Amino acid sequence: MFTSIIFILILSGATIVFYRKVRKITRSIKLGKDITINNNKLLRWKRVLFIAIGQQKMMQRPVAALMHVFVYAGFIIVNIEMCEILIDGIAGTHRLFSFFGGFYGFMVSIFEFFAITVMFGCAIFLIRRNVIRIRRFWNKEMTLWPRSDANIILITELLLMSAILIMNATDSILQTRPDSHYTQVGSFMISSIIQPVFSGLPSSSLIIIERFCWWFHIIGVLTFLNYIPYSKHFHVFLAFPNVYYSKLFPAGEMANMPSITKEVRLMLEENYSGQDDDNEEVTFGAKTIKDLTWKHLMDAYTCTECGRCTSSCPANITGKKLSPRKIVMDTRDNLEEIADKLFNKKSSEKDDEKNTRSLFDFISAEELWACTTCNACTYECPANIDPLAIILEMRRYLVLEESAAPGPLNIVFSNIENNGAPWQFSHEDRMKWAKDIYMNGKTETKGKCSGYS
Amino acid sequence: MEKQKQKVNVPVIADLFAKGEKPEYLFWVGSAGAFDDRYKNVTRAFVKILTCLGVSYAVLGTEESSTGDVARRAGNEMLFQMQAMMNIEILNGYEVKKIITCDPHAYNTFKNEYPQFDGNYQVIHHTQFLKEQIEAGNLKVRTDIFDKKIITYHDPCYLGRANGEYAAPRKVLDFIPSEKIEMKRNKSDALCCGAGGGQMFKEAEKGDKEIFIERTEEALATGADVIATACPYCMTMITDGLKYKDKNDVVKNYDIAEIVALSFGI
Questions:
Q1: Which domain holds residue A374?
Q2: pLDDT digits (tens, 9 = 90+) for A276-297
Q3: Cβ-nearest to B70 among A261, A422, A434
Q4: A250, B111: Cβ pair inside 8 Å?
Q5: A131 and A171 share one domain
Q6: Are residues A79 and A129 in the same domain?
Q7: Is the same domain home to A387 and A239?
Q8: Taking all residues of chain A, what is their mean pLDDT, rounded to a whole number?
Q9: Are residues A67 and A147 in the same domain?
Q10: Are residues A375 and A264 in the same domain?
């Protein structure tokens, strides 16, 4: 009874804290500009099925993909056991589902198998990050916190899985001891292997270990749950909606700016009567996170900092400062900072919003102008994050609001404006190439061409 | 077979319209196609093919202007939209329905971005057009100019990743008797030439290396004799890369239109 109350208190506490943080993130995302994304629902669900649930884009790097499937599938399956743990905790029962008999033992053995795949995956991931030191985990933006974050996640998962296995091993031994009253369900596939480690211990010690592991696991899971929203690990939740709302093909299309269209139509069309409804000031492009759309901000919270984008970015590969991952990480850091100020302070203090930093305090013009808009980053991202869109919105701000394009591009702009080409050539010379062209071929019949050797 | 040199006349749409004629295709030459010395040769090669096939086409000539792709990607949305609206007005004035272009950037802009301003056209990249013509048997192979050559194809970002067209240029090359080899990074993994998004017109930011050199080295590593491209920017970058690596005498950089024209003896 007493333990049930403790359990219920811990569980409710953890749930409330988690809910509050998630609500704060939701509010942060909604700080972005409102856009409606609801077209082509069927295709969007299909992409959720293939890209998010099916991990399709992970497969471009097969080793990492396989390990990720181990951890991802394993973690989901192992946590089916959470149902029993939660009910046991609330009701004060022990292995409530054991009345299933042999099937119960079979299921727990399956869970144990997946616990091992999770541990294997995590171990390989730790080795890749810390021993092999794969380059994309050590780029400049991978400072102490992002590197530690990844290790904390992997080690936590290793510990949680170990707790389950030790708990099951000691439980199985206790079932055979006449002085304890553990429900008879038999040994399980994996934990039976480590039983000999504990078989020499007296029942009292075994009960302490078993109970400790049970509590360690559930408190660990609840703590981890509350760690996730502060970590890159939040992708376990956001990857699904983020893929759903991600841009549909073709990747080459840039988002339109209707505010500019209005201005251009006013300039070009004499009898254009655009609605004069909104007098609010619009910023062209993005200076702060509020100039980005909520989807860009969701991108920022979805990023798990795997660095596939950066490792395929031509600018980054050739040593430029630009790193698409950094763009996304910076957006999130800036957003968190602003959200903290906005949500945690009293409304009277909101006016020091002016003192908050902008995206440009995190991202330099040098990074933005190094982008070739090649779409390698958007193609690579397993969660369909679009770093390119943020880069382009920030370029728009630099050019449209600050007239701060690099000199040579300003020349290109004036050339296009004056003579319709990025180079300084006259309109009149546009047909010079067409003079004196001779060919060897001849038209056989209309639509058929025959050349000569 | 004796050579018959035939002069190619490039029809201008305004002239056809004055005569009450309407071409089936508008061939969008592009600023690079009209002004870049190297790429002019690609434009010429392509109009030779169009002429030889007897395709009903015309160009805008002096009425053509920048699509605004560079302006948009360099952040100047105002300039881009002005270009887009002016171009759409001209294109619609001539009742253009189908546009062919050798420039993947123009292709992408017409296909994906002009519809944002009610400019709706059927847009065809020249590699897609060539693929269809060759598959239909409308061009006959007469030369063995690439017979003993190894060709590697560099995917332009705005044809490949931006629009998912990896097959058409490769299918065209498959018709050319020659050996084909892929670079390590190809199709969706292809490395950019380094010129998109305005980079063509400015110095690169500080780094360890130029992107075009990285890509050229990758192409050279295949041992190919010919690097095939299908984009004016890619051509400038790869050609520069070959010069930088001092390989421009041994390894050639051709656009797919040129390879077809050469191979078919046009």
A1: 258-269+282-345+356-414
A2: 555 567 899 999 999 999 999 9
A3: A422
A4: yes
A5: yes
A6: yes
A7: no
A8: 93
A9: yes
A10: yes
Kindly report, residue by residue over A108-134, the tens digit of the pLDDT: 999 999 999 999 999 999 999 999 999
Q: Dump pLDDT digits (tens) for A350-406.
A: 556 567 899 999 999 999 999 999 999 999 999 999 999 999 999 999 999 999 999
Radius of gyration of chain A (CA): 29
Judged by a CB distance cut-off of 8 A, whether residue A420 touches chain B is: yes
Assess if residue A191 is contained within a domain: yes
Residue B8's DSSP bridge partners are: A437
Residue A440 lies in a domain: no
The enclosing H or E element of A160 equals: helix A144-176
Q: Give me the pLDDT at residue B144, please.
A: 85
Whether residue A312 lies inside any domain: the answer is yes
Q: Do A366 and B79 touch (CB under 8 A)?
A: no
pLDDT of residue A326: 98
Sole residue written with tokens 């089916």: A80
A310 and A224 share one domain: no
Are the CB atoms for B25 and B15 separated by under 8 Å? no
Each residue's pLDDT tens digit in chain B (266 positions)?
455 688 999 999 999 999 999 999 999 999 999 999 999 999 999 999 999 999 999 999 999 999 999 999 999 999 999 999 999 999 999 999 999 999 999 999 999 999 999 999 999 999 999 999 999 999 877 788 999 999 999 999 999 999 999 999 999 999 999 999 999 999 999 999 999 999 999 999 999 999 999 999 999 999 999 999 999 999 999 999 999 999 999 999 999 999 999 998 88
Contact at 8 Å (CB) between A426 and A419?
A: yes
Between chains, do A395 and B75 touch, taking CB under 8 Å as contact? Answer: yes
Among B6, B44, B208, select the one facing A319 at the smallest CB separation: B208
CA B152 to chain A, closest CA, distance in angstroms equals 20
pTM: 0.95
Q: Do A447 and B48 touch (CB under 8 A)?
A: no
- For residue A249, the model assigns a pLDDT of 78
Secondary structure string (H, E, C) spanning A294-347: HHHHHHHHHCCCCCHHHHHCHHHHCCCCCCHHHHHHHHHHHHHHHHHHHHHCCH
Contacts of A267 in chain B (CB under 8 A): 82
- pLDDT the model gives residue A153: 97
CATH number, domain containing residue A384 = 1.10.1060
pLDDT of residue B1: 45
- A329 and A291 within one domain: yes
Q: Please, where are the H alpha helices in B6-76?
A: 13-18, 31-35, 37-53, 69-73
- Quote the CA–CA distance of A274 and B113 in Å, as a whole number: 21
CB–CB contact A450 B52 (8 Å): yes
Q: Check if the beta carbon of residue A398 is closer than 8 Å to that of residue B74.
A: no
**Number of domains within chain A:** 2
The answer to whether B175 and B145 are in contact (CB under 8 A) is: no
User: Residue A434 and residue B36: Cα distance in Å, rounded?
Assistant: 13
DSSP state of A248: P
DSSP A345-405: S-GGGGGGGGGS--GGGTS-HHHHHT-----HHHHH-TT---HHHHHHHHHHIIIIIT---
* Among B42, B52, B123, the residue to mutate for chain A (most A Cβ within 10 A): B52
- Shortest distance between the Cα of B195 and any Cα of chain A, in A, equals 6
Domains and CATH numbers, chain B: 13-131 (3.40.50.1860), 142-263 (3.40.50)
pLDDT of residue A275: 60
Give the model confidence (pLDDT) of A436-446 as tens digits. Answer: 999 987 777 88
Closest chain B residue by Cα to residue A260 = B78
- Radius of gyration of chain B from its Cα atoms, rounded to whole angstroms: 18
Chain A closest-CA separation from residue B68 CA (Å): 8
Q: Chain B window 162-221: which residues touch A at a Cβ cutoff of 8 Å?
A: 162-164, 188-189, 191-192, 194-211, 214-215
In angstroms, the separation between the Cα of residue B206 and the nearest Cα of chain A is 6
More confident residue, A184 or A215: A215
Residue A286 within a domain: yes
Are residues A122 and A11 part of one domain?
Answer: yes
